Amino acid sequence: MQVPPFDLTEQLHQLGEALEDAVLQVLRSGQYIGGATIARFEQQFAQAVGAPHAIGCNSGTDALVLALRGLGIGEGDEVITSSFSFFATAEAISAVGATPVFVDVDEATYLIDLELIEAAITPATRAVMPVHLFGRPVDMERLGALAAAHDLRVIEDCAQATGASWAGRPVGSWGDAGCFSFFPTKNLGGAGDGGAVTCRDPALAARIRELAVHGMPRRYLHTSLGYNSRLDALQAAVLSVKLPHLPEWVERRRHLADTYRRELADLQGLVLPEPGPSGHSWNQFVVRIPRCPAAEAGCGGSCVPSGDSAAYGLPESCCRDWLKQALAEAGVNTIIYYPIPIHRQPAYEELGYGPGSLPITERLTAEVLSLPIFPELSSAQQATVTAVMRQLVAQPLSLAS
Ligand SMILES: *Cc1c(COP(=O)(O)O)cnc(C)c1O
Questions:
Q1: What is the pTM of this model?
Q2: Which residues pair with 101 in a beta bridge?
Q3: pLDDT of 52-108, one tens digit each?
Q4: Scanning 70, 206, 263, 305, which has the fewest C-beta atoms within 10 Å of its C-beta?
Q5: What does the domain layout of the chain look like in residue ranges?
Q6: What is the CATH class of 9-244?
Q7: Which residues line ligand 1 (CB under 6 A)?
Q8: Which is the closest atom of ligand 1 to the Cα of 64?
Q9: What are the beta bridge partners of residue 198?
Q10: Which pLDDT belongs to residue 86?
């Protein structure tokens, strides 16, 4: 049995006619940009997030850029964020002319270490951008208090956390702005690129809306230099059909995560993700392989060091890479989110974060592996993953014998 890391066609089968009808309706309407389909989705999405405003845009990356620009962050400003994320988190900060300032993550949660934020604040710091990585919510009460104490704006990167909540309140409703991605593999995925910004302040919502359409408050009057970044009607139609199913899909992800945690709990060579708060939406299930599985089961330390670790000054990842390869040979396809942290990317060389500057982030990139988790993953497929994992990673009994 082959187990894919995700399967984007299953939802089409599940929602079949409703999706096809919605798409055909847009096609036949002739209204492809703007209009009622967009307005309806924005309203539905704002309600789901519990924010008064939602503005659709081109992508999660653009959502971050629009939020930053809308809050007036740009040249000369610093934004504190995490380097253990998808590149777009920092790229958006740089795109508006500001500078990303990276702090290390917490080893247990993989999220920005709240203890380290204060020391990174300078007179140029304008905002904090927490990333709800893998669907796990950042403690927004603590982060919000910290930001308020230093008069910093909070821009939540919710790209991986649609459907997640902290203390019963959805992510994206806590900060000054929440930025979402509808990239197909996210918890709510379109049939292409898409994103949204949520916020409370009506003036900020209006600025973001203008920026997304060429800084144009009314037709052919341009009051700022903006972007062409709209959510198109076809995507909005697809997303409107899918959104009501998000809660059940997130529940399924939680169930799959619980099952993995139970079935893999006794494997000594493996660090499982902490269950986290109840609002975790499990966009990814990320395990760590800190050392090679014992000789009788795993590679016994005979794995081949990777070129990446030397090239980018990162800890050796051969044990993780070995397991990924062995899983693939058994039909279980996994992904590494992310093999090179943002601060060690060639594009950010000029920021000067050398090897060892963010030790936990760097170690995680060498050890993490994401097991298949998506709502349509069948119980039989998941059983295959756990069975293969149990074969490949030494168990306590075999260690004792
Ligand atoms: C996917 C992602 C983005 C960017 O979203 P796109 O829609 O692909 O532009 C930003 N931040 C994080 C953490 C992401 O996972």
A1: 0.96
A2: 80
A3: 999 999 999 999 999 999 999 999 999 999 999 999 999 999 999 999 999 999 999
A4: 305
A5: 9-244, 246-398
A6: alpha beta
A7: 59-61, 85-86, 88-89, 131, 157, 159-160, 181, 183, 193, 195
A8: 10
A9: 54, 178
A10: 98
